[in-house]
Design brief:
By secondary structure, this protein is α+β, with helices and mostly antiparallel strands. The radius of gyration is 33 Å and the shape is elongated. Strand 17 and strand 18 form a beta hairpin. It has 4 domains: 165 residues, 3-Layer(aba) Sandwich (Rossmann fold); 87 residues, Translation factors (Elongation Factor Tu (Ef-tu), domain 3, Beta Barrel), CATH 2.40.30.10; 87 residues, Elongation Factor Tu (Ef-tu), domain 3; 127 residues, Orthogonal Bundle (Arc Repressor Mutant, subunit A). It has a 6-stranded mixed sheet with strand order 2-3-1-4-5-6, sandwiched between helices. The protein has a 6-stranded antiparallel β-barrel with strand order 7-8-14-11-10-15. The relative contact order is 0.06. The chain contains 20 helices and 33 strands. Its main location: cytoplasm. Translation factor necessary for the incorporation of selenocysteine into proteins. It probably replaces EF-Tu for the insertion of selenocysteine directed by the UGA codon. SelB binds GTP and GDP. It comes from Luteibacter pinisoli. One of its GO terms (biological process) is selenocysteine incorporation.
Length: 654
């Protein structure tokens, strides 16, 4: 259990920790010389046959309040220290405000130097404290008079802390690993070491991690947890990690960085949050208010953008957007504190809501509903709200990442909602059953309307239809949705187009008769190098313009595709060439290939091969990287029919 001290300078925090643990909290030469704590100090107290208490001794001087914020993040119990001779002081109130803003609900108030005053003074200061904590998260905290000199009350304080440790709420095992770095140093024969409090999850020796926001990969060589060698560090532990990696140096990692599970690395510099402005602030704040954001051990400049109204008054709570000077590593629902730019006072604080906040349309009803859903602490409640809020389709991996949820935690959150899920690539898209049925009906209605207006066309282009339908699914999920039984029974994939199963493109008898003559000329052994339009016209003895119109009619009906002005290819041949390109890419070391390699496989001329590839580029099937191309896997079926062997869909309900 982590115990964090807080209180005014020279009220005896370090002496109290020394009396409890026998370990001096001051660790810096300057601290010992001046007799005050400048940076975080640490001490440990193993309980008999029980857990170890870890003490974070934070500085009390106003100049070092930002360090106090770093120390308070991740603590289990606050030990608020008030000297009985001085009573409540300015930094006492500010430290209490910070503890309150960080949502720390378990605490003890120690009235130190109780041996230096009489009973009446102790009662008077206790009354001051009780009035001060009223309405805060520490309103029910027990007040204990103590003396580090005579030992008065120390047994009672020790017993209270031990009781808190034994009844400590277990940290959630649903979360992925995050450690807020507060120190970085090197040790001879060991290498680079970072220390901090584990905010969530667990870490083991040999685990891979990422330093965020820089993105440097590292590996854990050894672990020191609660001042002892360990194989694992867990949420709530004070941990030292010995890290190794090609770019891991003392200058590459800084206080304020996070060591995280690689899945979580996604820095942000624009965050929607819920902010409470402290009642003691002298005036209301307006949009673009400058401040210092303190989150875990990070300290970064920020601007506050109001999302409701024109000002936020002292004591009020409102949603805001925090625009940061540089990216940080964070998780949704993390607590933060705002201080003014001069570091003179604490302004307010709250918790993060959305790490991917938009820069525009921040005040729309849709965004208001999204923020309300994202602010729910229970993942199931949050997802339920998101699935009923535009755009309705939600990326479950992004949700899990931004909440630092472990692999199985999001599945447990999703299960009660029984959504329709589409597993595509690295992500999963979820729709509620109601929104899924609305999607299916909207799809059918859009196609029916299009067929009514254009009975001679084979259907709507797949991408055009995807963008027109709400809920709007990501491209890969949309492809899978088309293969869902609810859709496949009504909608046919016809190459790059979609049509209702009941729709057959109409053709004039003249078009149909002409196609019966043209089609054989485009197939067979010459299918990869079919005759040009003018050559077909010469072979059939027809005008070139007529043949061109007949071929365009066939293209509208999905029988052929126009690759260039003078070149048409049969639809099945287009699909065959896509699969050939995919095979070339599969055998390439980097998945990329040249036009020459494609030309050689088709046994075709360079000009025609280039025309084919450029057509694929325009359709989005390929990505052109200079002289080399790669394929987009989710577009491989663009020219295929329903029975094309592109891969089985991966979707499920619930």
């Amino acid at each position: 259990m982590i115990v964090g001290t807080a209180g005014h300078i020279d009220h005896g925090k370090t002496s109290l920790v020394r009396a409890l643990t026998g370990v001096p909290g001051d660790r810096l030469k300057e601290e010992k010389a001046r007799g005050i704590t400048i940076d975080l100090g640490f001490a440990y107290l193993p309980l008999p046959d029980g857990p170890t208490l870890g003490f974070i001794d934070v500085p009390g001087h106003e100049k070092f309040v930002r360090t106090m914020v770093a120390g308070a993040s991740g603590i289990d119990v606050a030990l608020l220290v008030v000297a009985a001779d001085d009573g409540v002081m300015p930094q006492t109130r500010e430290h209490l405000a910070i503890l309150d803003l960080l949502g720390i609900e378990r605490g003890i108030v120690a009235l130190t130097k109780a041996d230096a005053v009489g009973p009446d003074r102790i009662a008077d200061v206790a009354a001051q404290v009780r009035e001060m904590v009223e309405g805060t998260t520490l309103a029910e905290a027990e007040i204990l008079p103590v003396s580090a000199v005579t030992g008065l009350g120390m047994d009672a304080l020790h017993a209270k802390l031990a009781a808190e440790a034994w009844t400590r709420h277990a940290h959630h095992d649903n979360d992925r690993f995050r450690l807020a770095v507060d120190r970085v140093f090197t040790l001879p024969g060991i290498g680079l070491v970072v220390t901090g409090t584990v905010l969530s999850g667990a870490i083991q020796v040999k685990d891979a991690v990422v330093i965020s926001p820089s993105g440097l990969p590292a590996r854990v060589r050894s672990i020191h947890a609660q001042d002892q060698d360990a194989e694992e560090g867990c949420a709530g532990d004070r941990v030292a990690l010995n890290l190794a990696g090609p770019d891991i140096t003392k200058d590459a990692i800084h206080r304020g960085d996070m060591v995280v599970d690689p899945f979580l690395h996604a820095p942000t510099d624009r965050i929607d949050a819920r902010l409470r402005l402290l009642p003691g602030e002298p005036r209301a704040i307006t949009s673009w208010f400058p401040a210092r954001l303190h989150h875990a051990s990070a300290d970064v400049g920020a601007r506050v953008v109001l999302l409701d109204g024109e000002q936020l008054r002292p004591g009020d709570v409102a949603d805001v957007q925090l625009v940061l000077d540089r990216p940080i590593a964070a998780a949704a629902l993390d607590r933060f504190v705002l201080r003014d730019t001069t570091a003179q006072r604490t302004v307010g604080g709250g918790f993060f809501i959305d790490l991917r906040a938009p820069a525009r349309q921040r005040r729309t009803p849709q965004r208001l509903a999204e923020r309300e859903a994202l602010s729910q602490p229970d993942p199931t409640d949050s997802l339920r709200g998101l699935l009923d809020t535009p755009p309705f389709a939600r990326d479950l991996e992004a949700f899990a990442r931004d909440r630092a949820l472990a692999a199985g935690a999001v599945d447990r959150a999703v299960a009660p909602l029984s959504p329709v899920l589409f597993n595509a690539g690295d992500g999963r898209t979820a729709l509620s059953p109601l929104r899924w049925q609305q999607f299916v009906e909207a799809l059918a209605e859009a196609l029916a309307a299009f067929h009514g207006e254009h009975p001679d066309l084979q259907g709507l282009p797949r991408e055009t239809l995807r963008r027109a339908i709400l809920p709007r699914l990501p491209a890969a999920a949309f492809v899978q949705a088309l293969q869902h039984p609810d859709v496949a029974a009504r909608v046919v994939r016809d190459g790059a187009f979609l049509r209702l199963a009941s729709h057959t493109p109409t053709a004039t008898p003249e078009d149909e008769a002409a196609w019966q003559l043209i089609a054989p000329l485009l197939g067979g052994d010459e299918r990869f190098r079919p005759p040009r339009v003018r050559d077909i016209a010469a072979l059939l003895g027809r005008p070139e313009n007529e043949i061109r119109q007949r071929l365009k009619s066939a293209a509208r009906r999905g029988l052929a595709d126009q690759v260039a002005h003078d070149h048409f290819f049969l639809r099945p041949v287009m699909h065959e060439m896509v699969l050939i390109a995919a095979d070339i890419a599969a055998h390439a070391p980097d998945g990329r290939f040249t036009a020459a390699e494609f030309r050689d496989r088709l046994d075709n001329g360079r000009k025609v091969a280039i025309q084919i590839l450029e057509c694929f580029d325009r359709q989005g099937v390929m990505l052109n990287r200079g002289t080399r191309r790669s394929l987009r896997a989710d577009y491989l079926d663009l020219y295929g029919r329903e029975a094309s062997p592109v891969g089985r869909p991966d979707f499920k309900s619930g």
